[in-house]
Design brief:
Blueprint: E1 4-6, E2 27-31, E3 36-37, E4 42-43, E5 47-50, E6 58-61, E7 67-70, E8 79-81, E9 90-92, E10 95-98, H1 106-112, H2 116-123, H3 136-140, E11 143-145, H4 149-177, H5 179-188, E12 200-202, E13 207-212, E14 225-228, E15 245-247, H6 251-257, E16 264-267, E17 269-270, E18 278-280, E19 288-289, E20 293-298, H7 305-312, H8 315-324, E21 332-333, H9 336-340, E22 343-345, H10 349-388, H11 398-403
Parallel strand pairs: 2-9, 14-19
Antiparallel strand pairs: 1-11, 2-5, 3-4, 6-9, 7-8, 7-10, 12-22, 13-20, 14-15, 16-18, 16-20, 17-21
Helix pairs in contact: 4-10, 5-10
Length: 405
């Protein structure tokens, strides 16, 4: 079993600082804590600034192989491994910069900084109601198993292969999800120009109803019916029911707001960028819509719900909704009258049905990829947890290697 050692014993004591004001005319790349994509663990938002324009927190020198650990809001616990193209640049003082000594591989340190034992260890130390943070010293106090360099390489190789599978699954899922918008354009053309000359009607003419949802306050008690809130519909128009709240309603009120299969959920109030995201209810739950939605029911004699859903989530309609939305800073709105006035190219029902059938085949593939991604992520997280709970280095690897072969 490997010994547990504090990080401060296996990283360099000082990684260097820089005073941008000393070179006011020099340009350099600056990495703020918000510049780290914490899902992909990479730097995505670095920017070039002049020394004279640099913020006071732009002071930490970084090198290839350094591990950046955010210690402050808005991206607490974000982690990234510094790639070669950022060598010699500057990071925010909101990062604790971990630079491995010869006793440890930078990649091993990087994976440790993403492990549950590290994240939970820091989370338990966060202080400050207005600006929650941890100190560099608290980061350096965290303890990790330190096996031989050979064992570290073995662990890094295993975790890299497992993460590679997650990345490929995520890319495959994303490509599958792009098929429906592409198919929409292929079959119907861009609604902005209507190149196929489809008849155009007001959206309201293709609806049987357009009703606001319930304004009753929800709870997490689990009592009553699930209340579908704006966070349960993604920007792409998919349902995400991983976080549900519940509402208790009288029978008549529940019937008034209840969702049925094929209902469209139009998010009428949100930030301007997110107003208009539209979900298609699959009917798998008995649930009601919240007041942030307008619940749309298609007139099936004119339009299929699936076609309306794809139309509302098209790039063209995203632009139209964005331009139409009104409101104060941080929140915008579209009302029922404005919604029903949107112009809708309307193909024949048989073509809409063909489009739906083809898309549902694609959605089945997307569902498979989603499940495969979930399994790959679970495998990676299990391996990551074992690696730094001091189990992986001494356990047989046959099962783990088979899982990521």
């Amino acid at each position: 079993m490997s010994n547990l050692v504090p990080l401060r014993e296996v990283v360099e004591r000082s990684t260097g600082t820089r005073n941008p004001a000393a070179s006011p005319d020099e340009e350099f790349t600056y990495i703020d804590v918000a510049a780290v994509d914490n899902q992909r663990k990479i730097i995505v938002g670095a920017r070039s600034i002049r020394g004279s324009d640099a913020l006071s927190r732009a002071r930490k020198l970084i090198k290839t192989g350094d591990v950046l650990v955010s210690t402050v809001r808005p991206n607490l616990n974000a982690v990234a491994l510094v790639p070669p193209n950022f060598n010699g640049q500057v990071a925010s003082t909101g990062f604790c910069v971990l630079r491995a000594t010869p006793q440890m591989l930078p990649e091993y340190l990087f994976f440790f900084a993403r492990s549950r034992v590290f994240v939970e260890g820091l989370t338990n130390l966060v202080a400050g109601a207005m600006y929650p943070a941890v100190s560099d010293s608290q980061v350096l106090d965290q303890r990790l198993p330190l096996p031989s360099l050979g064992e570290q390489r073995r662990t890094v190789d295993l975790l890299s292969r497992a993460e590679g599978i997650v990345r490929l699954r995520r890319e495959t899922q994303a490509k599958a999800a792009e098929i429906i918008p592409a198919l929409f354009l292929d079959m119907f053309g861009d609604p902005a120009t209507n190149p196929k000359g489809l008849p155009v009607v007001a959206l309201g003419e293709a609806l049987r109803a357009a009703d606001y949802g319930s304004s009753t306050k929800a709870s997490e008690s689990g009592a009553g019916l699930p209340l579908i809130r704006m966070g349960n519909v993604t920007y792409a128009g998919n349902l995400d029911l991983s976080d549900l709240k519940y509402v208790e309603l009288e029978s008549a009120e529940a019937d008034r707001f209840r969702l049925v299969r094929g209902d469209l959920l139009f998010n009428r109030t949100n930030s301007k960028e997110l107003v208009g995201k539209t979900g298609l209810w699959d009917g798998e739950l008995d649930a009601v819509a919240a007041s942030y939605f307008i619940r749309l029911r298609a007139d099936e004699g004119m339009a299929r719900s699936f076609y309306l859903w794809a139309f509302m989530n098209s790039r063209h309609m995203k632009r139209v909704v964005f331009d139409t939305a009104r409101g104060a800073i941080g929140q915008a709105n579209i009302n029922s009258k404005e919604l029903k006035a949107f112009r809708l190219p309307l193909p024949s029902l048989d073509v809409q049905v063909e489009f739906e059938e083809r898309c549902r085949s694609v959605l089945a593939i997307v569902a498979q990829q989603t499940e495969a991604l979930k399994n790959a992520e679970a495998t990676f997280q299990a391996l990551l947890s074992r690696a730094f709970s001091n189990d992986l280095a001494t356990a047989p690897l046959a099962a783990e290697e088979a899982a990521v072969a």
